[in-house]
Design a protein that fits this description.
Elements lengths: L1 H19 L12 E12 L2 E2 L7 E2 L5 E18 L4 E3 L6 E5 L7 E7 L1 E10 L3 H4 L20 E3 L3 E11 L9 E7 L13 E6 L6 E3 L7 E8 L17 E2 L2 H11 L3 E7 L1
Parallel strand pairs: 1-14, 11-15
Antiparallel strand pairs: 1-2, 1-7, 3-4, 4-5, 4-6, 4-8, 4-10, 8-12, 8-13, 9-10, 10-11, 14-16
Length: about 270
């Protein structure tokens, strides 16, 4: 009899816990804002990315190490389960992710309360912001500050994705070093290729983001960024033949793969 009582209590407790974690549409007030973050967890295949020390193998069976990984994410939008879209104000929507800086692995924002089923962002910096006066490109976009080394010039604009390391497959003027720098927004005064990528992560399979102002923590969308996929997808990239990418045109085949390097792992509500 005691066992039966305990089972009933356990079931009741579980039912209460489930009920507590369920948020209905009527419980959200879009006039209020809650904290949300999008975490960019850089990996290589099934391994966590470790700068300089980790060794990885790409789709061409080439071993490589990574010494630098930086990229811009911008123009974030969050799609509610009811179909409405919240667009982050553009002046507050540019972020430089830097693997070597633990303070630059997340985008942190306040958005209206709601349950969100997707997040959309741009890999890179859009043409409008690229062509604005330098006084309008502050914070993470400051080419003399945080974004130092991530800017080519007026016509070419920002380097969207900077990926560097070493590989025994390479023997060139710079030894076994590779430097893959991807940029190109279409050009300011002369037409160039447009290597910007728009990424949408569907959150429904692994957890929608339930944002409430009353939460004393940020809901976190945990995103995986697999650098191994830089080398495969639309095009197969071999480090033996493609190891110095310092122009917009040279970056086009690599850029074609970049939209697939992002995936939603889970949401921490």
């Amino acid at each position: 009899m005691k066992k039966i009582v305990l089972s009933i209590v356990t079931i009741a407790t579980l039912f209460t816990a489930c009920k507590k974690n369920t948020t209905t549409a009527s419980e959200y007030n879009s006039a209020n804002k809650g904290a949300i973050s999008v975490e960019f967890d850089n990996i290589a295949g099934s391994s966590d990315l470790q700068l300089s020390t980790g060794s990885y193998t790409n789709s061409s069976s080439e071993s490589y190490k990574v010494t630098m990984l930086k990229y811009f994410v911008s123009n974030l939008k969050f799609t509610n389960v009811d179909g409405t879209i919240y667009t982050v104000p553009q002046d507050s929507s540019y972020f430089l992710i830097n693997e070597s800086d633990t303070n630059r692995h997340k985008v942190e924002l306040n958005i209206p309360e709601g349950e969100y089923k997707a997040v959309t962002f741009t890999l890179g910096v859009d043409s409008l912001r690229n062509t604005m006066d330098v006084s309008k490109r502050t914070g993470d976009l400051d080419p003399t500050g945080v974004a130092s080394g991530m800017y080519w010039g007026w016509n070419s604009g920002y380097i969207f994705f900077k990926f560097e390391g070493t590989s025994s497959a390479i023997s060139g003027m710079m030894g076994n070093v590779f430097q893959i720098h991807i940029g190109g927004f279409g050009g300011y005064s002369t037409v160039t290729a447009n290597n910007l990528k728009t990424i949408t992560l569907d959150l429904t399979a692994r957890g929608t983001a339930k944002v409430k102002a009353s939460k004393n923590y940020a809901v976190n969308i945990h995103t995986l960024v697999d650098v191994n996929k830089v080398f495969t997808g639309t095009n197969t990239i071999s480090l033996k033949t493609t190891n110095m990418v310092h122009s917009i045109a040279a970056g086009v085949p690599v850029a074609a793969n970049l939209g697939a390097i992002f995936s939603h792992d889970h949401t921490e509500n």
